[in-house]
Amino acid sequence: MIKVFKHKLIAFQASFLVGLMCASSGAQAAAGSNNFSSIARNVTTSIEELPGLVTGISYLFGLLLGVVGVLKLKDHVENPTQTALKDGAIRLAAGGALFALPIVFESMMNTIGTTGASISPAKLKKIELNVF
């Protein structure tokens, strides 16, 4: 009975996935052709919120590593032969680095800039081939 249920579930999942792919390909065909500029525009649009995600994750893991580092230092104080001091120190340093990552990233972006006005590629206006 369980094998039959598993096979029916797999068949349902496969048919749902195929239907979803067909529906999405029809929507893409109706929206327009896929060329390099539309793909690049879609990638740029979809990664706009990535710095906020990196900031949240780095704060979360920085705090987590800081708490675990303090707990490891407490374990070292209670039993120095069992837990080395470097275990807590490494976790505290990594947590501090992760906690400072968004600030460093923001200062880097302010230093470099996001406008791109300072650097522009050379533009080709005309090609002349002096053969004669």
Account of the protein in words:
- With about 130 residues, the chain is mainly α.
- Helix content is about 75%, strand content about 0%.
- It is flat, with a radius of gyration of 27 Å.
- The model has no long low-confidence stretch (mean pLDDT about 75).
- The protein has two domains: about 1-45; about 50-110.
- Helix 3 packs antiparallel against helix 4 (about 85-110).
- The chain is built from four helices and no strands.
- The longest helix has 30 residues, at about 1-30.
Instruction: Find the structural class using helix and strand composition.
Output: mainly alpha
Q: Proportion of β residues?
A: under 5%
How many H/I helical runs? 4
Give the helix level as a range of percent.
Answer: over 70%
C-alpha-based Rg, rounded: 27 Å
Kindly, what is the distance between the CA atoms of the first and last residues, rounded to a whole number of angstroms?
A: 85 Å
String of helices and strands: HHHH
Mean pLDDT: 77
What is the total number of structural domains? 2
> What does the overall shape look like?
flat
Q: Would you report the number of β strands? A: 0
Main sheet: strands, sense, barrel = none
Low-confidence stretches: none
Compact overview of the structure:
With 132 residues, the protein is mainly alpha-helical. 74% of the residues lie in helices and 0% in strands. It folds into two domains: 1-47; 49-112.
